[in-house]
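pasting Heme exporter protein D for the record, 62 residues
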Amino acid sequence: MSALIQSLGPHAGFILASYAAVAVILAGLTLAIVRDHWAQKRALAALEQRGAGRRRPGGEAP
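structre below
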């Protein structure tokens, strides 16, 4: 690890902090997307349970 920090030069702290910030932001966005996916699946299941069906190709009513 020491060799890595030395190879980055005097700005090693800034570079490593930037990579850490990007990792945290990407993890947060991924978590938000997964949670939204779960919520959309639950909402769709609730709608289908109440009788709202999916549309057929061509927009025909059932």
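Residues 12-49 form the longest helix (38 residues).
The radius of gyration is 24 Å.
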